[in-house]
């Protein structure tokens, strides 16, 4: 088992990474000993892993579970209310520990529920998808969607710990695994050129989920995320770089209907649009754009926007993006391999050229 620490002073917490942690994990049982534990999962993940987690926790804690429908389209205030109702029906007080067992949707919703319930209770992240293991489970971003925008209602609220069992990826559909790779690749683009090169050289090992390669990729992503969050927890500066591809990507998700494009698929297409914008602004050269595009393509990720989306379809959502300041769209754009910046004055005429060209 490997351990990474997210250093946030009194709110610091560990990330545990290993195989089979859902079957035996002293660090998890110790953290909930003598407490009431409320597990939230979905109807896809629960049949696979809920029983194992309950067996692990029951000797140490009183355990309840609440199952939500699976899918981004259910990341709503209505489903969040069902979590609150279940907590109250089970007479859960401020000493309850919420456990998010699932992917990014479950993690985001349970984290937000923990932030709100009785003004804040402890929660633990147990991410079961590649995307949630390398990104959304770490850093304390919690939210639900609104029909007019993704993650528009939320809070920064850190977990007590993150438990990553890499064996969970064995049951992950190929499409979901590929979507997670979009976030893995992102870290190389914005932060670590050597990691991007390593990804290029280990495509087959990753696609076949070779354990050592997969463990290294997850660990390196978590190391970068922990470093960034420790420096900028509430996204006032450098943490915004983690949103590479997300301004375009969130527009795709909102316009196409939540759940029709997986988040990672939308981020992949958005990352290429961001790289094309950077190329048009002469921030990067053709070789970097080509490397980004080709690495996403080898994982069977989309590298173009949906044909049905025109410029107006994009821009109406991009103007609602959470990074907008003083009415200006702010984009994260690569400036070199392993480096990126935040740009606030990208002409909409240039964005139109990039979007329409795809």
From TrEMBL:
Keywords: Amino-acid biosynthesis, Aromatic amino acid biosynthesis, Cobalt, Cytoplasm, Lyase, Metal-binding, NAD, Nucleotide-binding, Zinc. InterPro entries: Dehydroquinate_synthase, DHQ_synth_AroB, DHQ_synth_fam, DHQS/DOIS_N, DHQS_C. It is found in: Cytoplasm. Its EC number is 4.2.3.4. GO terms for biological process: amino acid biosynthetic process; aromatic amino acid family biosynthetic process; chorismate biosynthetic process. NAD(+) binds at residues 70-75, 104-108, 128-129, 141, 150, 168-171. It catalyses: 7-phospho-2-dehydro-3-deoxy-D-arabino-heptonate = 3-dehydroquinate + phosphate. Binds 1 divalent metal cation per subunit. Can use either Co(2+) or Zn(2+). Residues 180-324 form the 3-dehydroquinate synthase C-terminal domain. GO terms for molecular function: 3-dehydroquinate synthase activity; metal ion binding; nucleotide binding. Residues 67-178 form the 3-dehydroquinate synthase N-terminal domain. Zn(2+) binds at residues 183, 246, 263. Its cofactor is NAD(+); Co(2+); Zn(2+). The keyword Lyase applies. HAMAP family: DHQ_synthase. Belongs to the sugar phosphate cyclases superfamily. Dehydroquinate synthase family. Catalyzes the conversion of 3-deoxy-D-arabino-heptulosonate 7-phosphate (DAHP) to dehydroquinate (DHQ). This is 3-dehydroquinate synthase. It comes from Shewanella algae. The lineage of its organism: Bacteria, Pseudomonadati, Pseudomonadota, Gammaproteobacteria, Alteromonadales.
């Amino acid at each position: 088992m490997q351990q990474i620490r997210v250093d946030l002073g009194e709110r610091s917490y560990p990330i545990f990474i290993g195989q089979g942690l859902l079957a035996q994990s002293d660090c998890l049982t110790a953290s909930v000993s003598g407490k009431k534990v409320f597990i939230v999962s979905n109807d896809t993940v629960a049949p696979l892993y809920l029983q194992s987690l309950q067996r692990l926790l029951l000797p140490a804690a009183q355990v309840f579970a609440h199952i939500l429908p699976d899918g981004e389209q259910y990341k709503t205030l209505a489903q969040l209310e069902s979590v609150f109702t279940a907590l109250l029906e089970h007479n859960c007080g401020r000493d309850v520990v919420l456990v998010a067992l699932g992917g990014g949707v479950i993690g985001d919703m349970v984290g937000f529920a923990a932030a709100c319930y009785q003004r804040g209770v402890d929660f633990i992240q147990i991410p079961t998808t590649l995307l949630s293991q390398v990104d959304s489970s770490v850093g304390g971003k919690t939210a639900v969607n609104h029909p007019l925008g993704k993650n528009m209602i939320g809070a920064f609220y850190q977990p007590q710990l993150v438990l990553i069992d890499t064996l969970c990826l064995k049951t992950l559909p190929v499409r979901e695994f590929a979507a997670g790779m979009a976030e893995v690749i992102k870290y190389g683009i914005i932060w670590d050129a050597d990691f991007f090169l390593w990804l290029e050289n280990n495509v087959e090992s990753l696609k076949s989920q070779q354990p050592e390669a997969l463990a290294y990729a997850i660990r390196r992503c978590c190391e970068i995320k922990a470093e960034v969050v420790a420096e900028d927890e509430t996204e006032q500066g450098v943490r915004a770089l983690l949103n590479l591809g997300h301004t375009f990507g969130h527009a795709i998700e909102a316009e196409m209907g939540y759940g029709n494009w997986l988040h990672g698929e939308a981020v992949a297409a958005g990352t290429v649009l961001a790289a094309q914008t950077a190329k048009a602004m002469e921030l990067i050269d053709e070789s970097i754009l080509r490397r980004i595009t080709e690495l996403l393509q080898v994982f069977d990720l989309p590298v173009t926007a949906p044909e049905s989306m025109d410029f107006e379809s994009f821009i109406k959502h991009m103007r609602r993006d959470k990074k907008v300041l003083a009415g200006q769209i702010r984009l994260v754009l690569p400036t070199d391999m392993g480096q990126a910046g935040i740009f606030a004055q990208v002409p909409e005429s240039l964005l139109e050229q990039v979007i329409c060209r795809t």
